[in-house]
Amino acid sequence: MNHSEHEETITSINIAPLVDIILVLLIIFMATAPLVHRRAINVNVPKAAQTEQKATATLNLVMNEKKELFLGEKRIVPSELGFQLGAMVRSDPFLHVSVLADQTIPYGEVVSVLDIVRGSGVKKVALEVRSKKVK
User: What is the pTM of this model?
Assistant: First the structure.
């Protein structure tokens, strides 16, 4: 008996390496998506020495240097903000909102936006800051 007579030729494609590569690419895209999203609206947030990473997914509320409000990526006027957030809270009572305000915005205006957010029923509100390099 010859050894080559008992071997079968492989006629199917092994897709396991392809699946591995696709999963690695998916993980890379998922990890870099928030970084790309954050660059979409240019906001110069203040720096703080004590920062920590967000543990849960949040809805970003951005106030840029022109005092324009963006809920996610959609521009919104302050009079509609409470209504929009109220509708979102009714569909998701555990909604987390992260407020990103440019450091040039006066404190009182940021507080008025925070007042609208809290008045709409959002229980979890965070202020976003950048990490300050400590020497």
Answer: 0.56
